[in-house]
Amino acid sequence: MRDEKREKCAFANDLRPSRLAATQSGALAWSVVAILFVASQSTAADSPPLKDFLGVCGHTVLFRPALYRPAVGFVRDYHPMDWDTGSDPSTPTTFPFAKNRVHWETVYGSWKKEKFDVNVCVMFDVFKPEVWKNPSEAAEKYGEAFAKAFGPSSKLPYVSSVEIGNEPGLYDDAMYRKIFEGMAKGLRNGDPKIKIATCAMVVGKSHRYAKSVDCVKGLESLYDVLTMHTYAEKEPWPTFKRSYPEDPTIKYLKDVKAVQDWRDANAPGKPVWVTEFGWDASTKKPPTTGDFAKWVGNTEAQQADWLVRSTLLFMKMKVDRAYVYFFNDDDAPHMHGSAGLTRKFVPKPAFHALANLQRILGDCRFEKVVHETPGRTYVYEFVKTTGKPTRVWAAWAANGKVDLGVDAPVQRDGEATGEVLQHRPGAPMMTKVPIKGGTASMLLGESPIFITWKVAR
């Protein structure tokens, strides 16, 4: 598809272009599976609990921190650099005010008040490349001023991390490296405690929506985090279809693994953050003409379940942090037009699903794989990091319904208690999981169930 058509898929404030997408194919498959449990020997003792893992992408003055706090603990801001400098990126800043008089102390201070960890993505590609007269110097001065104003060591310690760019594909690789290196040096000088992150990275060649990891190769001392974006793309324009996260035919999880593998070989120990993932769920039909006439969205139930399951998959993959795209939408029936956790600031099923996930697993970290048939059935074990030792199994079927038998972690016959993920607020929906002959039997669906095992470790 041509770039000019892709450009029309930008979200409302035109801060970033969108990319291609995909959807779930049709009918539910039914099967019966009985599988003995083979315990994974690997653990993830250093993995963060859910409350320190999941965030949402917001935008400056539009984000309402108190509204989103039940669902996520982190927020990522698309921060337009030209708000701070005007039309010339070398113009000195006036922090805590932006040049357009937005008061960043008020904005980020309100987020911090709600106990959010704040990650700022500096959108420097709001400038055309030729506007930068001395990109290294201008970027360094900006980075230093920003870190001194808002870094963890400052008088306004609101920002814990900064991404140098979002999807700056209109800049060539050499230009990006100059700006990245300059801004990273400035951030490091301004506050050594602030975490410095890359723009969206991809293994292989740079493209319109990501920069090659080779752009930052050799600059490991200047950054702390590698970031990437991943979407469950099934088909390109004109349908923009998205699929379910476990779909073995798409690159959704494979791209994450590729960045992690590159990290292991070239920047060992650096965290990898997925700073955008999500699905659209509009109640409206697409337009009859134009680029989105054949657009295929997802249901609200799919958006809710797939965000939750992606979160569980990312935790199992040892991704260090993940941010849902997007915080709010206006129910527009096109790509990235209905990806919000809220619609016109009213919580959608996806919001309630993530809030329920936080309630169930907020204090839990990923422990091990109990059972996994890729693309089909999943049972992951999480352990509580506070209070009494507790194991929680998250179990689901990727596409359809499946009867599954898995070795139980208790010897006696009886039953365990499971909670079915709900897409609404209110009392939990509980289910019984019978145990007979050492096997726990469960009917799995696309909404995960969470089984609590109160057994000694």
What would you say this structure looks like, in words?
The N terminus is likely disordered. This protein is 22% helix and 26% strand. By secondary structure, the chain is of the alpha/beta class. The protein is built from nine helices and 21 strands. The strands form three sheets. A nine-stranded mixed beta sheet has the order 1-17-20-19-18-21-16-15-14, with helices on one face. It folds into two domains: 313 residues, Glycosidases (TIM Barrel, Alpha-Beta Barrel), CATH 3.20.20; 88 residues, Golgi alpha-mannosidase II (Immunoglobulin-like, Sandwich). The chain starts with a helix and ends with a strand. Helix 7 links the parallel strand 8 and strand 9. It is globular and about 75 Å long.
Question: What is the overall shape?
Answer: globular
Q: Structural class of the secondary structure composition?
A: alpha/beta
Uncertain regions: pLDDT < 50 for 5+ in a row?
A: 1-45
Using the CA coordinates, give the radius of gyration.
Answer: 22 Å
Biggest beta-sheet profile: 9 strands, mixed
Order of helices and strands: HEEHEHHEHEHEEEHEHEEEEHEEEEEEEE
Name of the top-level CATH class of the largest domain:
Alpha Beta
Number of domains: 2
Report, as a whole number of angstroms, the end-to-end distance.
Answer: 53 Å
Q: Could you estimate the helical fraction of the residues in percent?
A: 10-25%
CATH architecture of the largest domain: Alpha-Beta Barrel
Number of strands: 21
The chain-level mean pLDDT equals 91
The strand order across the widest sheet is 1-17-20-19-18-21-16-15-14
CATH third-tier fold name of the largest domain: TIM Barrel
List the total number of helices: 9
